[in-house]
Each structure stands twice: as structure tokens, then as C-alpha cells.
Amino acid sequence: MRYGPAVRRRKLGAELRRQRDLAGLTSGEVALRLGWHQSKVSRIETGRSGAKPSDVARLLEVYEVADPELRALLEALCRGGASDPEGSRRGWWYAYRDLLPPAYRDFISLEAEASDAYTLETTVVPGLLQTPEYARAVTLAALPDLPRPQVDSLVEVRIARQSVLHGERPLRLHAVLDEAALRREVGGPEVMTAQLSHLANLCALPQVQLQVLPFSVGMPIGMTGPFIIFSFPHISDLDVVVLDHLTSSLYLERKEDLRAYSAAFEVLRTRALTPEESLSFINKIGGGA
Predict the structure, then answer these.
(1) Where are the beta strands (DSSP E) in 126-277?
(2) Which of 15, 163, 218, 240 has the most Cβ atoms closer than 10 angstroms to its Cβ?
(3) Residues whose CB falls within 8 Å of the CB of residue 1, separated by 6 or more in sequence, listed in order
(4) pLDDT for residue 89 is more than 70
């Protein structure tokens, strides 16, 4: 388990090392071509130090990597984490750098670059599917002593994150939502009614697959707590499991962890209601049935 920025550096370094091997170059030869010390190449590849987007771009030129999506993904992996030395390439979340801890900023940047997200939520509606009022109620419940301006900013961040579900290449969200999250009243009856209506509307989006896990199925294997799996285009080695905690996030990147959580998610998805049944279920709860 590692914190997000370390995961990003390691994954970026591993893929850059793989591209160097495919190009048939040694780290010394790469350093010579770029006018770097060999130790700089080694530190980047082992994840001991970060890399600027311009450094990654130069490395990919040397390795003759032409795939635009791969290039964009690898350059994105070195942006948006704990720090970003190239202001012109910063993500929108950099404006909230004084409020958001590095691990959360890194989570947001991973979310922004992923092609798919597979999430189990057992307590609350997933952040990408929350209304502003619901998000505010959740934030106040988790951080009751936080000054109101900071609460407002955190809600802004939560809503801004939802842009990944829209646009030219939206994130494909596969969510299994425990019935408890639908029945737990957050923010009062009006807020909850609006939230359930919002969920029903989002079910119409082709990039959102929402399934409800009803109480009647008991506790399936794998339902030990909320988690999310980020999957990236082209490079399965970049996939990562994120376990959310109150004050931080933990990242699992070993292949055996990914296999275990992916298998657990498939079990949960099989036991859950179908998307069509889930929509009816949400509408029934929202209508007071």
C-alpha cells in the first residue's frame, strides 16, 4: 500500500522503463542523448523522484513513442499530484492546493485520466453522482468543525470532479450501491428526494452503469467496505485500487490485489439488481414506496 503520489511515480517510471527496453536503449544511452546524468533516468524509472511533463515528453521522443493516447496518459501521470512545476499544465484542482491534501489531489488526477472506474459504495452515494446539497451534507457530517468557506470549496471540488462523466471521452462509471446508501437520509427529506431523482436521471447516461445491492441478497463475498478500481486505457499495469478513509486514501497496486478486488466486484455486480431493476428500485424509494 502506498499513498497516491508514490503510486503515480512508480507506475510512470515502470512504463517509461518498459518503453526504454522496447527501444533497445540503456539508461546511460538515454542520459547521453538528453544531456542528463544517468542517475536522473534511474530515479525517474524507480519512482524515487518525480518528472516534469517536459521531461516525459523528451523521453518519449527518444523512445519514438507515437501513440498519442499513450503519450497523453504518461504525461498526465506526472501532473496534478503533490506538486506540478509547470503551471500551464496543471489540472483545475491546483487552484484548491491549499485546501486539498496531496493524496486527494492525486486521486482527482487519477480519476481524470482513467477510462473506467469500478466502485462499491456502502454508506453514501458516490461522489461523482452527488447533488451539491447532498455533497454539502456529507461534508458537514464528516468535517463538522470546518469553516463554512472551506466547506463551500470542498463542495465545489466535488461537483467539478463530475465533469469526467461528460465531454468527448467520458469516464465509464460502473457503480454498485448498497441499499443502505439509498435509504440513509442525508441532509433531510428534501435533499434526499432530490438526490434520488438525480440518480435516476444519471442512469440514463450510457457511461453510467448503476446497480443496487438490495438488503435481500445478504452480504456477498467482497462486500467488506467501499473501494474503487481505476482502469486506464492501453496499460493495465497502471490500474489501481483505492480504499478511502476519513483522512486519507490508500492505494493497492499489486497484481494480486487488483485481481482480488476485480473478482470481488464481479461477484457484487452479479448479485446486484440489473441496471433496469436498479432504476425501478431507486424510483420506488424516491417515491416513498
Answers:
(1) 172-178, 208-213, 227-231, 240-244, 249-252
(2) 240
(3) 250, 251, 252
(4) no
